[in-house]
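User: I'm putting together notes for a lab meeting next week and I want to include a structural view of one of the chains we've been expressing. I don't have a solved structure, so I'd like a prediction I can at least talk through. The sequence is below, exactly as it appears in our construct file.
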Amino acid sequence: MDFEFSSGQREIREAVSSLCARFGDEYWRQCDERSAYPEEFVRTLGEAGWLAALIPQEYGGAGLTMLDGSIILEEINHSGGNAAACHAQMYTMASLLKHGSEEQKRRYLPRIASGELRLQAFGVTEPDAGSETPKIKTFARRAGDNYVINGSKIFTSRYQHSDMLLLLTRTTPFDELKKKTDGMSLFLVNLREYGDAIKAVPIATMINHGTNQLFIDNLTVPRAALIGEEGKGFHYLLSSLNAERILVASESIGDGRWFVEHAVSYANERRVFDRAIGMNQGVQFPIAKAHMSVEAASLMRLKAVTLFDANLPCGGEANMAKYLATEAAWEAAEAAMNTLGGYGFTKQYHVERKWREARLYRTAPISNNLVLSYVAEHLLGLPRSY
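Assistant: Thanks for the context. Below is the predicted structure for the 386-residue chain, given as structure tokens.
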């Protein structure tokens, strides 16, 4: 097995790193303090073509692989930034690319690739359903050539900064189905044309994530907004969810490497009792363990993304990569916090911001406990626990 990145992939990493260097730690600290969307960064990233990385060349994109996409997002976080501001455009792309109609692709993908449109919002989770997606209540009722949608969503991020919304609804009531994952449909909603029927209420959180609760009141969209066949939306969604798991894992790997590098730098420079604190095994060992965890998670990420790019089943690998990478990033975050001691809590060193951001991914986009349940049931054959 060859674990070396190609020259092209190394060039991607270097180019993204160079772009991110223009948006240093102070830029991200100020965005965090003002709860501001990093508009200039996202616009610059889009103009450079990186947000169109996964769109095929025939639709105006770069036609890169998911592995290339994972490198892009990893490097953003490794550089001290927060790719969550724009990562949805990559993982939502999978549902549209694999299951969208040719008319949908030709209508929207070139405009997304050029930056004219942003596909950054993803409406799945609901207040009552939580991670039990089949229990969603948002309903799309067929009305002639249209669908009329009513319901609500929660934790829908970047809504105010997106022109398109990928929206999961029920089209058949839950209690009328034997297989509960059937009867859900996926819509690509043009918010410029139909957004007036959606009210977004921002949710204050411990990190700058720009998330909202959506209230959908008689949203009327044409049949052409439906992705694929009615009732198969959950299965289409899995294409995006596996991509999401892989890309979030990549961001966490970038975070983990940022934490390890900052902890090492501080441990080498900080002197107490006339010696660098990095000489102490109590400081060394947590950093070394975190480094090994990040590297191991990266290998699982590479396996998952290789299967994804080969169009092979990768649900288990994508979930395991998400779990291992997010746990490794948190381990590295804790190691960095403990290495810096009191200084870790100051905004001057930027660790506290990244520490807060890294904690999110142990819970979202799926709780790591649910990943453990998935592995136990689907990979190990243990009885279903819920």
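A couple of points you could mention at the meeting. The beta strands are 119-123, 139-143, 146-157, 164-170, 184-190, 198-202, 211-222, 226-227, 271-272, 275-276. The two ends are 38 Å apart (CA to CA).

User: Perfect, that's what I needed.
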